[in-house]
Automatic annotation (TrEMBL):
Function field: Catalyzes the addition of an amino acid to the nucleotide precursor UDP-N-acetylmuramoyl-L-alanyl-D-glutamate (UMAG) in the biosynthesis of bacterial cell-wall peptidoglycan.
UniProt subcellular location: Cytoplasm
Name listed for the protein in its UniProt record: UDP-N-acetylmuramyl-tripeptide synthetase
Gene this protein is translated from: murE
Top-tier EC class: ligase
Length: 509
């Protein structure tokens, strides 16, 4: 990456433009910084340092100054003997100054962004797979699972957040642009808006998949209204909108889109409906793919010329909805129907509806479903497609977040599962046995056979060993995760697919 920099006078101008500057102390009018950071543990030579975060301490700023910082940005004056910019909102300042520091890479990218309680990662992978065929090596991906910023293997790495902190966001956009990329497909979480990680960013296409109560709690959103408010911001900040016409709170969502876009730039899709621009219907599903039809209902829809049958290499009727959103977005990014069809046929999403065939222990699905709505969609789909099979689920719920998921899992297991083994999934600072107990208390034991086995690998082994042909084993909620977050440490874990395959090798050879 070329040397990046930011002049203090330019920083002041940008903050003033956004009405964020409270005061400034400029010790050197010609100062231009060549390093940017919010983490005092890094080298800060000739750097700008941002004091941000709930757990920020003054000593971090002192450490940054000692390490070479020349300028700090903060909501509070610390009198450190270096230049400072005091701002109304440090997260917003971090976003717009990071964009400027990295030379506004967003201006060189066609950006497609998706939000939704469920389906963001899947839809992003579908679009990436389609567009990468049309523009090989030129499409970046910022997803919960991977970030891809260039065509070489070293340009692909694991993500820590669904939507990165603004500084990393603009840094990785810069890397993508420097690597010759021209398009970016990204997920935007509600937290990204809550924490102003995407403040100031405008999207070419913004998509809204669905919303159900989730992410409400101590460290996330105080209420559902706040969650919805944050999520709909994506549409307000997008030029063209793609919206699921059957989402909850549709009226609020469409009103948000209309705040900044004309109806000609808003595309609606739904299942078996006349109240949208596109209607989809399922035709056929097997254990490895599903076939569905897309038909345009309105003239606006017809103009995109995407009507027809599509085969999707990832099952689940909800994935047909994700795929339809991907079809519309990809067409708007100039992919043609043939490319879209082949991109969907070959698309794979790590940890989402991966299936493993066994010789004599049924079919195993690994899926990231980790709240009531997604488990209901997953188990409901499997129940409908395989009415004669026993549905056997291994699942746990994380500690210190999404506490409502525990009752949700109890409810959905009662509604749809035949048996369940409750186990550990990112317990954080809680006791996994307590979490399992809380799920268990919400299960009707007359309907589901339930066991608790705290060690996840043993739980999976027990479920596979006690299953036979015709059974469906669902390893839920963890997807491809390679760790268990335990007491503040990411403890390595081989991942559910690896564990399942290892057990099968042991017992089936
Ligand atoms: C609650 C929340 O949003 N926290 C995020 C936030 O942390 P923060 O700004 O409050 O920082 P902090 O952890 O309080 O630390 C304070 C500051 O001191 C600095 N520090 C700390 C120690 C030190 O020695 N020196 C130092 O300078 C830190 O670098 C930091 O800037 O900014 C950090 C990056 O700058 C994020 O990693 C962190 O995400 C936490 C870990 C997280 O897990 N967030 C989840 C809830 C989240 O955002 N999830 C959504 C997906 C949800 C969905 O599916 O919809 C996501 O987009 O991933
Ligand atoms: N459109 C959908 N409606 C309901 N459930 C879905 C939908 N798409 C995916 N799912 C379920 O949700 C799980 C997570 O899907 P995905 O990772 O694509 O969503 P996400 O929005 O990125 O989730 P998260 O924010 O939790 O990372 C899938 O494994 C599947 O079980």
């Amino acid at each position: 990456m070329q040397m990046m920099s930011l002049e203090i006078s330019k920083a002041i101008d940008i903050l003033q433009e956004h009405d964020l500057l409270v005061s400034s102390k400029v010790l050197d009018e010609n100062l231009f910084v060549t390093h940017i950071s919010y983490n005092s543990r890094e080298d800060q030579t000739n750097g700008i340092f941002f004091c941000k975060g709930n757990n920020f301490k003054a000593e971090y700023l002192q450490q940054a100054v000692d390490a070479g910082a020349q300028l700090y940005v903060s909501e509070k004056e610390y009198n450190m003997g270096i230049s400072s910019l005091i701002v109304k909102d440090v997260q917003k300042a971090l976003s717009i100054l990071s964009a400027a520091f990295y030379g506004n890479p967003e201006r060189d990218l066609f950006i497609i962004a998706f939000t939704g309680t469920k389906g963001k990662t899947t839809t992003s992978y579908f679009i990436h797979n389609i567009l990468d065929q049309v523009y090989p090596g030129k499409v970046a991906l910022f997803s919960t699972v991977d970030r891809i910023v260039g065509p070489k293997p070293e340009d692909k790495f694991k993500s820590d957040l669904t939507t990165p902190e603004s500084m990393e966001l603009f840094r990785d956009m810069r890397r993508a642009v420097d690597n010759g990329m021209t398009k970016l497909v990204m997920e935007v979480s509600s937290q990204a808006y809550k924490k102003n990680r995407v403040y100031g960013l405008n999207f070419d296409i913004g998509g809204f998949l669905n919303i159900t109560p989730d992410h409400i709690g101590e460290n996330e959103h105080p209420t559902y209204a706040d969650y919805l408010f944050c999520k709909k911001q994506l549409l307000i900040n997008s030029k063209v909108n793609i919206i699921n016409a059957q989402t909850n709170d549709f009226d609020t969502v469409i009103a948000a889109a209309r705040e900044t876009s004309a109806d000609k730039d808003i595309y609606l899709f739904g299942r078996d409906t006349k109240d949208a621009d596109f209607s989809i219907s399922s035709k056929e599903a097997t254990l490895s793919d599903s076939i569905f039809d897309v038909s345009a209902v309105t003239d606006k829809g017809k103009q995109l010329n995407v009507d027809g049958e599509y085969k999707l290499g990832v099952v689940g009727d909800f994935n047909e909805m994700n795929a339809t959103a991907a079809i519309i977005a990809s067409r708007l990014a100039q992919a043609d129907k043939k490319d879209i069809a082949s991109g969907l046929r070959t698309a794979r999403v790590p940890g989402r509806m991966e299936h493993i065939n066994t010789k004599s222990h049924g079919t195993i699905f690994v899926d990231y479903a980790h709240n009531y709505a997604s488990m209901k969609a997953l188990l409901g789909f499997l129940r409908t497609e395989y009415p004669k099979s026993k549905l056997k689920v291994v699942v746990g719920s994380p500690g210190n977040k999404g506490v409502s998921r525990r009752a949700g899992f109890g409810k959905v297991l009662t509604e749809l599962a035949d048996s369940a083994i409750l186990t550990t999934d990112d317990p954080g600072f809680e006791d996994p046995a307590d979490i399992c107990k809380q799920i268990d208390e919400n299960i009707d034991h007359s309907k589901v056979e339930v066991k608790t086995i705290i060690d996840r690998q043993s739980a999976i082994r027990e479920m596979i060993e006690t299953s036979s042909n015709g059974d469906i084993v669902v390893l839920a909620a963890k997807g491809e995760d390679h760790y268990q977050k335990t007491n503040g440490v990411d403890v390595p874990y081989p991942s559910d697919p690896t564990v399942a395959k290892g057990i099968l090798k042991d017992i089936e050879g």
